[in-house]
Amino acid sequence: MTNPNPGSPDKEPATEAHAAQAALGNTERAETATSPKAPAPEPKPSLGRLFLDNLWAANTFTVTLLSLVLAMVVGAILMIVSDPEVLATYSYITARPTDALNASWTLVSEAYGNLFKGAVFDPDAVGFQAAMSPISETLTYTAPLVFTGLSVALAFRGGLFNIGAQGQAVMGVILAALAGFLLPLPPGLHLLVAVLAGALGGAIWGFVPGILKARTGAHEVINTIMLNYIATYFLTWIIVQNGVQDPNRTDAISRPVDGSAQLPRLLGDGLRVHAGIILAVLATWAVWWLLNRSTLGFELRAVGANPDAARTAGISVTRTYVLIMVFAGILAGLGGSNMVLGSTASALTPLVVAQIGFDGILVALLGRVKPWGVALAALLFGALQAGGNRMQSYSGISLELVTVLQALIVIFIAAPALVKAIFQLRAARAARLQTSLAKGW
Amino acid sequence: MEPGEIHALLGENGAGKSTLMNVLYGLYQPDEGEILVDGAPLKLRGPSDAIAAGIGMVHQHFMLVPVFTVTENIMLGAEQVRGGIAGFLDRRRARREVAEVSERYNLRVDPDAVIEDLPVGIQQRVEIVKALTRDVDLLILDEPTAVLTPQETEELLTVMRSLKAAGKSIVFITHKLGEVKAIADRITVIRRGKTVGTASPQASRDELAALMVGRSVRLTVEKEPAAPGKPVLEVSGLVVDDDRQIRAVDGIDLTVRAGEVLGVAGVQGNGQTELIEAIMGLRPTLAGTVTLDGQPVHGWSTKKVLRAGVGYVPEDRSVDGLVKEFSVAENLVLDIYDRPPFGKGLALKPDAIARSAKERIEQFDVRTSSADAPVGTLSGGNQQKVIVARELSRPLKLLIAAQPTRGVDVGSIEFIHSQVIRERDAGTAVMVVSSELDEVIGLADRIAVMYRGRIIGIVGPDTPREEIGLLMAGITPDAAPAAATGTTPADGGAAAPAAESPGNEDEA
User: Fold this and answer.
1) Contact assignment for A315 to B63 by CB distance below 8 Å
2) For chain A, which residues make up each domain, given as ranges?
3) Residue B156 and residue B162: Cα distance in Å, rounded?
4) Percentage of residues in chain A with pLDDT exceeding 90?
5) C-alpha atoms less than 13 angstroms from C-alpha of A366 in its C-beta half-sphere
6) N or C, where is chain A less crowded by C-beta within 10 Å?
7) Distance from CA of B162 to the nearest CA of A (A)
8) Testing the interface with A: which of B23, B31, B60, B334 to mutate, by most A Cβ within 10 A?
9) Range A311-323 average pLDDT
10) What is residue A196's predicted lDDT score, i.e. its pLDDT?
11) SS3 for B142?
12) What pTM was estimated for this model as a whole?
C-alpha cells in the first residue's frame, strides 16, 4: 500500500500550538526549571481525563518524551560498558549482584546528575553568578542552534532540504567578523552592520543553490553539500590573508572583532549569555509569523506541500524556491555571526562555527520543523552541550557521549514506529485518520 | 455473496463503501461484527489472510510498480523461485502462468510490456490478472471505471461477465448507475455507513439514485436556453506541445461567448488538457493567440490570467487542484490568498479567511468536520466542491472546468452542475471539458469535439449521441457514410463504440 502522503516527515497533523506545547512539556521534564510553566489546564471538567487518555496515545508529545527516555537508557548502558571498573563488577554478578548494580547506579546517576547541574541548576552553587552559570551556558549554546535549526526547518516547509546551513553559517561568520574588525564604526551601528553582514553572507550562500534549483532543477541537497566544502575552505584561506590574520600570531586565527561590534552580555561580564538569545527568540517569532501569518509563508507552504497545485493556483514556484533558500541562508548566516560576535569566540578560526549547521538539521527534525518546536529543541541541545562539559570534567564521561545522546534522540524521533512498538502506545486518533487508505470513496 | 454473482455496492462519496471493502481485504480491522466465508467466521489480520481465504482486490488506485513488466508485477509478492535456497526468480514459469490465466479468462495482456507504457485500462486488466493468479474466488473491484474511457469500460464489463461465467464472484463498487444496471445481479445500497436497501437491476435509475442519496435527484441538468453575449475567450491558431515535446494542440480556433457553455468533448488524450493548460498560462504556446475580452493573454503568467477573471477547475484535483495537507479554509483561498480581504501586503488575515471559509462551506454544502480539517481527509466529492467553491466565489469572466465531476457521487454531480449553470446565467463564459459525453451534452449549449489536437466539429447539444461519438472517433459526418460502406479506419473503428457504451450515464 502506498502512503497517502509520502514525503512528509511527520504524519501527525499536529497544530502549531500542539507541537509547541508538546515540546515544551518535554523540555520541562528534562530540565525542570529552565522553561516557563506550561499553561494551566482550562477549567473544563473533561480536560484532565482527556489529557490522561491522550498521554499514552502516540502523539508527538509522548513520542518525543519517550525518545528522550530511551536515548538516556541507551546512554546509560554505554557509560557502564565503557567504564572498566564498573564492568569488572559484572564478572561476579551472580555471586554479588548488588555490587554491579550499585556501581552502575552510582556511575549513571552521577553522570546524569552532573549533566543536569551543568545545564540547569547546581544546588550546591553559592552566589548569583554560580547559580546562574549553568543556564547562562545553556543559552549561549542554544542561540546559534536556534538560527540554524530555523534555517533548515523553513526550507523543509518549502519542500527543500537545506543541508547547507553549515556553509551558510560559515559565510555568515566570515562577513560578520570582517565587518567586525575592518569597519571603524561607532558602537551600536557597528554591531548592527556586523550582524547584517552575517545575514548577507548566508543569504548569498543560500541564493546560489536556490537559483540553481529554480532555473536548472539542480538538486539542492547536492549543491548545498558542495557549497559547504567551498565555504569551509574559503574560511581557512581567508584567515591567513594579510589584514585578516592576527599580526601577533603565527597560527590560523584572525584579528579579534572590535568591542563595539560585539553582542552585549545580558548578565554581566562574568556570565557568557549574550543578546544573541534575544535575537534568536525574535527570529523564531519572525519565522512563525512568516510561515503562518504571511502571504509569502502561504506560498512557501503551498509549494512545499504540493508544487503542482501551487503552480496551478498562480504561485511562482521558482521564485518561491529562491526566496526560501535566501531566507534559510539569512537565518543560518545570523547563526554564524553569533559565533564570532557573541561570547564563544571573538576571532575567526577554522573551526569557529563548530557543527552548528549540521546540528541545525537535527534540531529542525527534533522540533518537528515548527518554529517554536525548533527553539525548544535547540534549548534541549544547548542544555545537553552545556551539561556535557560538566559531565566530562566531573564524572570523566567523555563529551562525545553527549553527541551520541543527541544522535540517539533524533533516531528515536525519526523512527516513531519503533518508540510506539517499544512502549505499546495506542495509535493516536488523528494519526489513525491520516492513515486512511480509502482515498476513493 | 453467492458463487458466480456480480454484486454491486452502490453509495455516495463517503458512504463507507471503500472502508467496508478494505475491512474485507484485511486492511482495516472491524471494530464490531464478523465476516463469514462459507459459513465460517473469518479473522483477517492482513491482505495475505484475505488472499489465502480467496479474496482478491483491485484498488481504485493501482498498486503496480511502473518500471516493472507485467509478469514481474504479477509475480510480485508471490515470486516463483527455483534453484532451492539460491532463490533465482523463475520468470519463465511466471510468464507462462500469466499467459495461461489471461488466456483462460480472455484477458489479453502482453506479459513483457512495461507497466508505465500501458494505458490505464490495460493496467487495470493486469491488476485483475494479478488477483486471478492468486486463485481467488471473490474479487473486489473498487470503482474500477472511474479512470476508464467509455470504450475501456465496455471491455471491462465484458471481462466481468466472463469471470462470472467462470464461477467467480465479484463485488463491484461504483456510483455510476448505468454500469450497475448493465451488469449487476444484485445491488446493495449503502448510505452513511449503513445498508439502506437492496435492489434488483430492474429498478429504475431514479429509484436507485434516490436510494443512494436519500432523496430524489435530478439526473438531467435543468437549464434555460442560453443567451450568448459578446465573445469572451477567443482562441485562434493555437499550437501547443505536451511534456514529451509531441504536438498536442495543432492549430485550434474556438470562441466562448458570455452566458454560454461551450462543451469540449473528446476521448482523453486528444489535446484537451494541453489546450486548457495553454490558456491558463501553465504551458507555453508555440503559435497562435488567446484573447480574453479582446486582450491578448497568451504568454501571461498563471497568476495574471487568474486575476483577469478566469476561474479554473483543474482536471486532476489531487495533483493540481488542492494542497491536501492544507486545511479546507486554506484551500478555499489557494489562489486569492494575497488579495483583500484575505491578505494585505505581506500579512494574511486569518479571521477573514476563516469567516469566508465558513460561508463557502455552508453555501456549497461541503461536508467536513471543520474548516480547519486537512482537505485530504474529505471525500472526493467534497474535495471537488471545495475547488468549485473557491473558483466561483470571485467575479469571473470565464470559467474553465476540466472533468468537473470525475470520481464524484451523484448528489455532488447534481450540485456542481447546477452551480456551473448558475454561473452561466450570471453572464460568465463557461468552457467545460469532459470525457463523459453525458456531462458535455447535459451542460453545453454548443459542443466542440476534439480529435488529435484539432477541433473536428462544433455541434449543438441536440445532435444525436451517435454522431458525436463518431466525431470523437475522428469521423466527420461527410466521411462517415464512406467509412461505413468501405474500410473502417483502424483507429476510428476502435473508438467509435465509445459513444454507445453503458459506461456513460445515459438512457435514463
Assistant:
1) no
2) 1-30+50-118+396-441, 131-369
3) 10
4) 54
5) 34
6) N
7) 26
8) B334
9) 94
10) 96
11) strand
12) 0.74
